[in-house]
Structure formats: structure tokens, C-alpha cells
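In this section we walk through a basic example: taking a raw amino acid sequence and producing a predicted 3D structure, encoded as C-alpha cells. The instruction is simple. Fold the sequence below.
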Amino acid sequence: MEERPRILIVEDEPAIADTLLYALKTEGFDPEWCATGRAGVAALAAKPFALVVLDVGLPDGSGFDVCKEIRLRSAVPVIFLTARNTELDRVLGLELGGDDYLVKPFSPRELTARVKAVLRRTGGGTAGTDFHVIRENQNPVAAEFVVDDERCVIRYRDTALGLTRYEFRLLRALAAKPGRVYSRDQLMAAAWEDPGASLDRTVDAHIKTLRAKLRVVAPDADPIQTHRGLGYSLRGSS
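The resulting C-alpha cell sequence is shown next.
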């Protein structure tokens, strides 16, 4: 029998949690519930989950802080639940590595649909061994990037980068064709399942965090080039 995807729900309101547990079980998932951020982090450390449904307003702190802690050790997809529908909150959630953002009140059907969409987009937590080196005309910059499509991992100068899902998709698109300038719309289409729901500044924010992670590996290098008014590219060979 095929194992059902295990979903972690971190939500302090029992009524909402019960509804989510029932909806996810009905759709063939194996959900578990934690009422606090601390309990959620402990559950993730104890066993693997395919996805986390994470409430922003928790009794022991912000769900954003919980997501930061999760990202220190895991790239598991995260869907935020929140009562606040502001641009700042949405952008912050995405910058911290969230994969989707759902505003209360919402229907259980919408939540399960988003869970399925995120799992399709991220591979459902599956792993593989298909590593390959991105090269374009033997470009020396692009050859420094090794991409594992199955695990959604990119190695830069033999160092695995701790990327969020969106950072992975953005960097992979740039590395596929070094020197090509991608507009923000093109990068959103490459990285987000629903690019119309994202913002131009969201791409800029993810590029900023990508650059910071690349600088940790190679402080003197800056492989991502900004083209003002146009977009971004991976530096091509001169």
C-alpha cells in the first residue's frame, strides 16, 4: 500500500485544527496536529513530513519565527495560515521560505487544494539521485552550479546551498542559460505556480537572499547580474 503523505498542522485553535485534520484525512493525507510552534519544531525533528501547515499567530510566538527555525534544518514546504491579509505579511512569509499563504477564514477544500498544488510543485518530498552540471557553451560561471532536480538541491562551488523552493527555481532558471536576461515576469512564471498572485518585489527579495547565500560560499563573487529596468541574469563568459 502506498504511504500517505504526512502533513504537520501547527495551529492553536482546536476547532480549526479539527476541520483541517478531517479535510486532509478525507483527501488521502496523514495529518498530525501540534498546538504550539515548539511542539511543531519537535515533531519535525522526530520524523519527516511532506508539508507543514503553519499558523502565523501561535501562543508561544510568531509562525514566522517558527519558519525561520524550520529553515535552519529543513526545506519542507510550508503553507502559512493567517488572519492578516497585508502585502507586508505576504512578502515576509515568502522571504522566509513559505511556499503559500492562506488568509482566514478559508474553506477546507481550498486548503487541501493548495496542499496538493504545493506538493505537485515540490515533488511531494520525493528524493532521487539525478545530479547534473548546468553548462552553457562551457561557461565557467554556470559550470560552478550542480543541480539535483529530484531533491531540489543546487551545489555552488561544491557546496550545497540551503535554498527555499522559490530560490531553487529562480537560480535554476538563471543557471540554465547564462547571459540571458530574464524579466521579473519571466522569473515569476518559472518559480511560482500562480505568478499573477506574486509581486515584482517578491522576485527582488528572493534574488537578494540568493546573493547573500552565494556570498557565504564565495564572498568575492557575484554571479547574479542586475539589469536595471529589465531583470536579472547569471553572468555569462566575457
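Looking at the output, two observations stand out. The chain has eight helices and 13 strands. Residues 82 and 103 are 5 Å apart (CA to CA). In the next section we compare this with other chains.
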